[in-house]
Design goal:
alpha+beta; 3 helices; about 140 residues
Amino acid sequence: MVPPMSDFALDPRLDRDSTLLMKLGLCQLRLMQDSRWPWVLLVPQRNGISELFDMTPLDQTMLTFETALAAKALKQATGCEKINVGALGNQVRQFHLHIIARSTGDAAWPGPVWGHGEATPWDGDARAQFTKRLLEAL
């Protein structure tokens, strides 16, 4: 039996490195605290999940749906060339899905963003404007 979402516990590192934008049907949509790339996370509100296959088939389907929604909104809000989606979990075991807007000439193009330089915090106004565009696109 899957525990109710009200008992959901977010890994402290995800809490530290991202900000909750909204709760979708299954996932929390969170903005990464790194302005170099428009980068969001989807975190299924289920405890004890570290792999996609740990989720129920219904939750897997819902995750796919929410991933497509968030990715499309991110592309619309940024005008980026490519959306990267990945679930690594080597450092944070709690299942979470990265959705990152990429464009030619960005700080890590064409390589991966992980381990590239130091995170640059969002400027308050830029963060507010980006968040507004993203949420409107959703």
